[in-house]
Structure formats: structure tokens, C-alpha cells
Amino acid sequence: MEEEASANSSITTEDGTPETSSSMGGAMVKHRPGRPMAAALARARFMGTLFGDAGIVGGFGRFRVIGRLGGGGMGVVYEAYDPDLARGVALKLVEVTDKDRGTALAEAKALARLSHPNVVPIYDVGLEREGVYLVMELVRGQTLRAWAPGRSLREILEVYQQAGRALAAAHAAGLVHRDFKPENALIGGDQRVRVVDFGLACEADDPARATHEQRAIAGTPRFMAPEAKTGAAITPAADQYSFCVALAEALDGAREPAPRWITAVLDRGRAADPAQRFPAMVDLQRALARDPARTRRRAAAIVGLVSAASLLAFLVGRQHTNQEDPCADGAARLAKVWDHPARTASLARISALGPYGASLQPTLARELNDHAAQWVREYRAACVDHLRGTETTTLSDRRTTCLEDGRRAFAEVRALVTNAGPATLVQLPRAVQSLPDPAACSDLAALASDVEPPPPAFAQLLASVREQVVQARIQVGAGSYESAAVRARAAVAAARVLGYRPLLAEALLVQGHAQLQLAPIESVPVLTEAMSVANQARDRTVAIEAWARRAYALAVTRNPAAAAAEADFVLSEAKGSAPGSFALALLYNNLGSVALAGEHRTEARDYFTHAVAVSRNLTGAGALELVVTRANLAIVTDDRAAADQLVARAAADRAQRLGADHPDTLDTLFQRAVTTVEDLHTTAEMLIPICAGYDRHSSYRSEDCWLELGLVRADLGDRAGAIDAMTRASHTPGNPVLAVAYLAFWEGDVQASTARFAAAIDKLPGVPSEPWWKTLERAELTLGLGQARRAQADLPEARTLLTRTVADLAMITRTHPATSFERRLGRAQVELALTLAAIGAAKAEKTAIAAAGLSWLRRAGARPAEISQLVTEADSTR
Predict the structure, then answer these.
(1) Contact in structure between 216 and 10 (CB atoms under 8 Å)
(2) Minimal CA–CA distance to 757: which of 768, 743, 747?
(3) Environment class of 747 (CB within 10 Å of its CB; exposed 0-12, middle 13-18, buried 19+)
């Protein structure tokens, strides 16, 4: 009989109990009732009865076991509580032989990397005693076996399509489930299907594999493909067969009989020959989504409309027929907020606002036109899918909301472009880059979430609040933070009244993001509430982004320890619920910033590396923000050449998105010039156009740029060039103390220079433990004062100041290597070596410091005359 297991098979019976053994991939997993794992759980339950918490029956490792949920060929599943992560989980325990433990654990970890909304996520895997354990999402719901009877045909097709997407995702990852059946798919209270029990999953075989290479037979007989029962090659077609058998059974219990076209699709999917089935699971899903009757009805309706319109046109004088395509109104809908002639006129005005406006116009026109065309395409795709009925009402509504948000964002960009003046031109390319990617509205996996749908009664009010949130997001992206904060606060107030938590969480997140740019410490409570409300609303993506921004706010307000709290938990949640997303990439990036603020350079490098990997393929809103991940990785990359390539690529990316002369692009070019380029001549050549660009934009970075150029020119012996650069730096807004002091020094007023350096140092607060950037500020001033004291022949004081400077800068460059810091250290070493020589210090005392200074002078391409002078002084015996 088909239901009987052969002696060497790994088969699960219909009720899910193990008959002999099962296989995790290629490793045979032997179940031995009563052996260590079972005994450990029995003992844990007994101890829990005596000493455990109320409702908790025992423990296993760190997990508190609450009760048994069920058993199957892959082991026993328990409901458990994870105290470390403060959440309920499903804990699956599988016993394996000693020789198979490593293989089983490796394969379980491979399964944990399979992430899809319709696959139950695996949070953790590991070894405990003699078994493998898997920690999974705890899904409260029904199996499809229990759920399906008495449902409508459409309901059954919709939920099985979700299960099909899970199998398609596994196939895309190179895995075959091998045991799909109604018992291995759960539908939760959120109506989302999760496929479970990938315990028999294996890597897909090559169909041409030699027949004598037998697979271990595994699965449930009634759902097993013929090739799986013979040990032949296992391909995704085997899952297709099981899926069709399961769906056919479910449809047999539906309220109405399945039409012939569905029967034909299922017959093909369960053909005995794998080659006769559909090419892939996605092709099977498409076939199930095509209803010939519906297509004929639509065609007939369109023909009717055409006929009626033709008759009307004939009667009124051959006017245009009515719209033949019900999904062709996307362009008209978008034109209502900003049509092509209006865009052209607005951009022509931008072009007339000076040279920078003229340089922006072609790029803005191209990107806006491309975005509009893409939005129209995605609108049509969503409309067609809705008319076909290929997705749930909830999913269709979410696509509509997504597209409408994109239309609102387009309208906000229109307002910015229309009202832009010379001072706000830099906001426009940022705003365009902040437009949400229309393709995201067709990312069904991302749209399928547990978030509660909005109440229909508040639809219009919610739409108004959503518009404010979208407007604020564009304002934040553009860099108009005050305006964004005002709009976001209004949205928060309105969302509180409506009581719809998902929208309130979004509004709080945008408000917190805006305030983060204005006053970081004030953003912390707002972002904290955004996290809490988003978690209550089950919007993991918003919660993760809010936590990431909150962590950054805490880090920049000198509290990296608080910022790192719960980082592991949030990162685990992000990887499980938002893989490959902007939120995950931002989280990695901001955790890197937190680690860097806490002086954990290696940890920061790991985080930034992950951020770069996740952000590589992201598009749309947020992609511009994540360009910084490469620049951040460059900061913690020890290989200077590799770091230079990273920051150069980040600069090129920003130039492509914003323009070569945009201040944000200049910022990245400036970072490259002062952190990865060592040669003084090259650095000076790079800084000149950057500083000029900052001046054109009246950027606050002008002072930093001209100051850096002045110091580099001084190191090159170009006093006139150094004075010119420092003069420009001293004329910038703010308080350019360092520039004014150096300018006096190089112009020959050493006494005034000394007074300015000393006064600036006195104003610095004396704290026992200051952040490294404050130490750097102090060291820059003591370096200048040390040079001034040396010029005044106050050699003992110069020696004291320069010795302290060398120590401080050496500490900074060890943990924050950058060529600008190394230049300051090198200059301090040279000045100290010359001071020691002038004092007449013993050769042994000055040799090491002189050697360090010489090493820097040679690497940086300094003046030969200065190198010769230091060699002479270092070799002197005075």
C-alpha cells in the first residue's frame, strides 16, 4: 500500500508522527524516544512543576517550556518563552546521531537563512545535549487542513497562493521542501500563511543526475512525487506535485466545485513525469491566477463598451470612443498633481536661477520624467491584478495606498520645485531622490505584513493625515527639517485623535527623524514612542527604523552604551522580519556609528560591512541616505587604498544622484581628501575646488575646508598660499578661532597668535574623561601654541605643549586613523624634534621622535629642505 513505509525510508504519517526516521537535508536524523533530549524535557517539566513560574512547565537551556504543541518526523515542537528576547517562541527539538550532529546543525543554519513572509522564520539554531534545536516564530492559528473545509473557492486559492510563494522563495534559494502538505502550512490570525517544517528540505538536484545515486526517501506518501518515492533526483518539481495534491484535496471540500480550468492546471502540476509539470512554481501560480471565464467576461464587457461607444460616436459625429482600457488612467491621475507641461515650465524657471540651477535642470527633468513613467506602469500593474482578483482585498488596498503615497510625494516635490529660490536649490535633487520607488508597490512580500488594516469609517481622515506624513518625509529628505518637524507634529496630533496606531507610529518616526537633525536629544523620546507604538501595531519595519535612529541620537549625545542596549535583539528581529530592507541597512549603519562612538573600531567595521551589503541593491527613498555606508566603512578600513576606493565610490554615487557640485557630494570628496589621501600635493589639488564649491553654496563646511588647505600649504612650505587659505577661513561665518590664530602666526604677529591659541585652550572645559573629538580639538590648539612658543624661543613650554600634543594625537590616530590626523601628528613630531634639538637634548631622547617625524615627511611628500633640516638636527650631538 502507498501509505506503508519501506524499511529504509524516512516517512511521516498523515497525523505527523514519526514512523522510523527522518532526514534533515542529507543527514539521517534518528529519533530515539526516551533518550537524553526527551528525558531532559521530562525532568524540566517535573522541576518546573515544583519550582517554575505559574504557567511555565519547565526549561530547556535558556528557554522556559510552556507545553507541547505537536510532533512530527522532524521531532517535537513546544511552546516556549525566551527570557533573553522577552517573547514567546516555538521550540523544535530533534535528536541526531553523534556523527550527524555537525551536518544537521549546518543544514539547520542554512534553513535559518531562508527569509520570506510566508515561511515561518527561524530565529536561532544550536546544539543542546545530543540534539539540534530550532527556535521559530510562534504562530497561533490553524493548519490549512483544519482551515479549508467549507471555504469558498476563491478563499482557498488565495491562501494556497501564499503557500506557493513560500515554496517559490525556497526554490529561488536552491532548496526543495520535500514534505509540503496541509499540515505543514499554518494560517495565523492575520490571515497570513506560513509554511513550516522544512526539516526534510534539501538542496535541489540536477535533473540529469545519474539514477544510481539514490536519495534517501523522505516525505508523506500521499503527497510525495513519484520521483521522490524512488530515490531519484529531487527538484522543485517535486514540491509542485505535493502542492497540487494538497490544493486539489482542499478544493474538494470547498463550497463550490472547482472549474475545469483549475482541474487542468492541477493535473499538469501533478503529472507523473516532472518534465511535464510547469517550468517553475511561479508559472504554476500564474496559471492559477488566470481565470478564463473572468477574462472572457472582461473581454465581453470591453466589446460591449466599444460597441456602445461606437454607436454613440456615430450618432454624435464620430467622437472618440469611451475608454477601452480600465487601467489606462494612471497618467491622467498623476497629471492631476503635476503634468508634463507644468514640470517643464517649473524646471525652466529653475534653470534661470543661476549657473547651479542651469546645471540641475537636465538631471531633474530626466529623473522626474522617469519616475512618472514608472509610477504609471506600476499603477497599471496593480489595477490589472486587482481586476483579475489575483490577490486579497487587503493586499490590493495596500498597493493602492502605496501608489497614492507616491502620488502625494510627487505633489510635494512639485511644491518644492515651484517655490525654490537660489538658496534652496540644493534641496531639489535630495527631494527627487527621496521619492518612494513605485516598484515597491508591487513587492508583495514586503506588503504582506501583520499590520492591521485601517478602519473604513476613517478612510478620508486617515488619507489627510497620510498626506501630511508623506509631505514631511519629502521635507526631511530634502533637508528642510524645521518644516518637516512642523508637518509631522501636526500629523502626530491628528493620528492620536484617530487612534490608528500604524499611522501614528509612522508620523512619530518622521517627527523623530526631523528632530534628530535639529536637536538629537529631543528626538529620543519621540523615537522611543514610535518604537513602542509600531510594535503594538505589529509594524516591524517602522519599529526597526525608529530604533536605529534612536540609537544614533543616543550615540551622538554621548550615550553609546544606552544606544547599544538591546541591539542584538533588534538586529535579530530586523533580520527575521525585514531582510534586505532599508530599515535593516540603516540599523547596521547606525549600530556601526554607535560602535565607533564607543571606540569599538572592529565591531564598527563589521556593522558597516553588513550595511554596505544590504544597501547594495536598494532603490528609491532611503537609497541616497545609505550612500554614507561606504564612506563610513572607509573610516574603519585599515587598508588605506581600499578605504580610498570606498570613499571615492561613495563620492561618485552622490555625484550621480545629486550632481558633482552639490554640497553633499563635496562633503564626501572632502572626506576623501582628509582621510585617505596622504600626499600633500594631491590633497591640496583636491581641496581647492571643494573649498570653492562650498563657498558657492555658502556652506558651513567652508571654514573646515579652507583651514585644512591652509595647514596643508603650510606643510608644503607655501606660506603665501597658507595665508590666503587661512584668510578665507577667517572670513567664514561662525567662530574660526584656529584660522585666526594661525593667520596671525604666519603673518608674523607671534604674540597675538600665542594669545589667541592660549585663550581658546582656556575656554575648553577641563573634564576627566572627554570624547576623542574634544581631545582632538584641544590637541589642534596645543599644536599651534607649541609652534608659537617655539617661535618665541620659549623652548621648555614648547616642549611641554608639543609632548602632550604628540601623546594625544598618537592615541587618536591609533583608533581613528585618518590622513588629516596623521598630518597633525607628523607636524607635532617634527616640531617637537626641532625643539629638542634646540634645547640640546641628548641624541637618544630625540632620535625616536625625529625618526617618526621624518617618516611622515617622506610619506607625505614634504619639502626636501625640511627633511634635510630634520635629518641634520636629529644627527647633531648637542
Answers:
(1) yes
(2) 743
(3) middle
The DSSP secondary-structure symbol of 328 reads -
| Amino acid identity for residue 758 in this structure | A
CATH no. for 772-878: 1.25.40
- Candidates 173, 198, 238, 166; CA nearest to 23 is 198
> Which amino acid, one-letter code, is at 302?
I
Place of cell 582632538: 776
Distances (CA, A) of 555 to 479, 549, 559, 592, 813: 21, 10, 5, 10, 21
Whether residue 620 has pLDDT greater than 90: no
Residue spans per domain, the chain: 1-290, 772-878
218 has pLDDT over 50: yes
- % residues pLDDT > 90 (the chain): 52
**Structure confidence by residue, pLDDT tens digits, 483-510:** 999 999 999 999 998 899 999 999 999 9
489 three-state secondary structure: helix
Instruction: Enter the C-alpha cell of residue 744.
Output: 596671525
What CATH homologous superfamily does 1-290 map to?
Transferase(Phosphotransferase) domain 1 (1.10.510.10)
Higher pLDDT, 853 or 10: 853
Candidates 702, 706, 723, 705; CA nearest to 714 is 723
User: Would the pLDDT of 18 be above 50?
Assistant: no
- Give the three-state DSSP class for 862: coil
CB 48 within 8 A of CB 61: no
| pLDDT tier at 207, thresholds 50, 70, 90 | low
User: CB-side exposure of 628: number of CA atoms within 13 Å?
Assistant: 14
Is pTM beyond 0.85? Reply is no
Q: How far apart are CA 665 and CA 556, in angstroms?
A: 23
Give the pLDDT score at 876.
63
Least Cα distance to 68 among 52, 57, 79 occurs for 79
Locate all alpha helices (DSSP H) within 565-701, ordered by sequence.
567-577, 582-597, 601-615, 628-635, 640-658, 663-675, 680-696
- For position 860, what pLDDT does the model report? 93
Confidence of residue 89 (pLDDT cuts 50, 70, 90): confident
